[in-house]
Write a structure and sequence with these properties.
single chain, 562 residues, alpha/beta, five-stranded mixed beta sheet, three-stranded antiparallel beta sheet, elongated
Length: 562
């Protein structure tokens, strides 16, 4: 772009360091809040070695390999030594994923440095580090999404590093990067099967935009890459046949509706996307109140597209020959088309997948909107320089100033949204029932029953995984998650219900946990449990209510004697 004075050459690294510092501080603020969420802790049982079969979908030789039909045990393996040495707590659950996301920011910087330059890379780092959806969804690893984003950025970084190599002479480091690329793709897919959206889109985009580079590199390194490539294809076929095909028609996820048309689904996914990236959706999900102000990311993208189309139209009318006038690692026009196509292909796969409907699905598209905006701005600058033809240096300075102001406004709006999140976390007075920090009080209270009861049964959804993980090691085995059993109990015969009673409740003293009637999560769990109690239990006693900050009952603790 413009020659950089020596005293400013370290500035991009300083910006990166400041971005990471802001990200870690903001993401770690009031780390215990909101309270641990049921899905946030679904991996804990696997990470503790699989105490029971809660969230253990598949084992090989007794070792958990899949936590759910579409979620692998990678995160559980990562956390096994952490929990072994440091125990289970909000800090040991959340801080490691924050640090992984910080590494993702570093990779994003170096990806930006390869495809653009170090100054654009520093812009990427601060835009991503202040993004509220990235900060707060990764803070609680809702989805989970942290490993997914990490492996996306890692594989993109390696891909562009590989194709940036000179393909006239063999590079001794090539094979190491290539194997790491394959490992990253396999681990990303194992972590969560919807990673295949990204993998398929990356493959198509690679063929469309960089096939010549790939062919030349293949010819140069064919002897070294043949075996790793065959191995990768074999593993992927086995994983697709063994993992994806069995759940192809499985009704899992949010928002599946048999009557929903593709157009309906497109608009629904678009709405979820819009509210996720501007910070609104997840804020309301956690705090059960409206976000006072949203980020301007969607508006910026819309204006960016309009401006780019106007400038492009002018360039065509004036018959300007597009020529990159900025000193970038890759052609900015091709990068723009690459990330636009990548985004579009993933988005289309999401629309065609009926289970898509939550912010954790939308984060598959992060951070491609940011890369699109930056690439679009660069292409617009290059086109303007071609259109004006005179005073190139002055026009370049004016355009760069405008870009800085535009993205400065985006960063400012994102920081404002983050401040609203921080204020709500500091206030601690408005959390949705399923995110309530009262879960910690409940966990502490249940510790008093260590030697007094045979088991602690969750009869509704929303608190078992957290309580089992937070419990003392010696009593974790007493926790049982029966919400699905009670939710479906009205469909079982009297003999089946009696068998349930005899196996788990007869001649035993148990604690049973419920949400109050006005806050029940599952439709039939509470009602079925009450009916079951009246048929089989000798005695049922309400031991304690737990209240949220608004003095509303959110948990009920019962003692039942079979």
């Amino acid at each position: 772009m413009i020659d950089t004075p020596k005293n400013l050459q370290k500035m991009p690294i300083i910006v990166l360091a400041l971005s990471i510092t802001y990200y870690i501080y903001t993401t770690s603020y009031e780390i215990k809040y909101p309270g641990l969420y049921y899905d946030e802790t679904l991996f804990v049982n696997g990470a503790l070695g699989g105490l029971d079969n809660t969230f253990i979908h598949k084992r090989i030789w007794g070792i958990p390999v899949m936590l759910m039909p579409y979620i692998g045990a990678l995160k559980a393996y990562f956390f096994y030594p952490i929990f072994h040495f440091l125990g289970v707590s909000p800090e040991t659950i959340r801080i490691p994923v924050i640090l992984i996301s910080a590494i993702t920011l570093i990779l994003s910087f170096y990806l930006g440095k390869i495809i653009f330059n170090q100054w654009i890379a520093s812009l990427i780092s601060i835009v991503l580090a202040t993004d509220p959806s990235f900060i707060y969804i990764s803070r609680v690893d809702f989805g989970p999404i942290v490993f997914m984003i990490f492996f996306k950025i890692l594989t993109l970084f390696i891909f562009f590093k590989i194709i940036s190599y000179s393909y006239t002479l063999p590079n001794p480091k090539f094979i190491n990067w290539y194997i790491l690329l394959i490992i990253g793709l396999i681990l990303g897919f194992w972590d969560k099967l919807n990673f295949i959206w990204f993998m398929s889109a990356l493959f198509i985009c690679s063929v469309i935009f960089y096939s010549k580079n790939i062919i030349k590199i293949w010819k140069l390194h064919k002897s070294k890459t043949l075996i790793p490539t065959i191995t990768f294809i074999t593993i992927m076929i086995l994983m697709i046949v063994g993992l994806i095909l069995p759940i192809f028609n499985l009704n899992v996820g949010v928002g599946e509706t048999s009557q929903e048309t593709l157009l309906d689904r497109f608009f629904r996914v678009n709405k979820v996307y819009e509210t996720t990236v501007n910070g609104k959706g997840f804020y309301e999900f956690i705090f059960n109140q409206s976000l006072p102000e949203i980020s301007c990311l969607n508006e910026l993208t819309f204006l960016n597209i309009i401006f780019l189309l106007i400038v492009l139209s002018l360039a065509i009318l004036l018959k300007c020959n597009y020529k990159s006038s900025l000193h970038l690692g890759f052609d900015s026009k091709k990068i723009l088309l690459f990330f636009t196509t990548l985004f579009a292909l993933i988005y289309l796969q999401m629309v065609f997948t009926k289970q898509v409907g939550g912010p954790h699905h939308i984060m598959m598209l992060f951070p491609f909107q940011h890369f699109f905006n930056i690439a679009a701005a660069l292409v617009s600058v290059e086109l303007i320089i071609q259109i004006v033809r005179k005073w190139h240096q002055l026009i370049k300075i004016l355009c760069i100033t405008l870009v800085v102001l535009i993205f400065g406004n985006l960063i400012h709006s994102q920081i404002k949204v983050n401040n609203y999140y921080s204020l709500a976390l500091h206030d601690k007075k408005s959390f949705s029932t399923t995110w309530s920090p009262v879960i910690y009080e409940l966990s502490h209270y249940l510790g008093n029953y260590r030697d007094k009861v045979d088991s602690i049964v969750s009869a509704d959804w929303g608190f078992h995984t957290q309580l089992q993980g937070l419990a003392k090691p010696e009593i974790r085995i007493k926790y049982m998650d029966f919400w699905s059993i009670f939710n479906d109990l009205h469909n079982q015969t009297k003999d089946e219900q009696e068998k349930l009673y005899k196996v788990f409740f007869k001649d035993k003293i148990n604690i049973v946990l419920l949400h109050p009637e006005n806050a029940a999560i599952m439709k039939y769990s509470r009602r079925n449990f009450i009916e079951f109690s009246s048929l089989f239990f000798k005695e049922i006693k309400l031991e304690k209510y737990f209240y949220n900050s608004k003095n509303e009952v959110i948990y009920e603790v019962y003692t039942v004697k079979g």
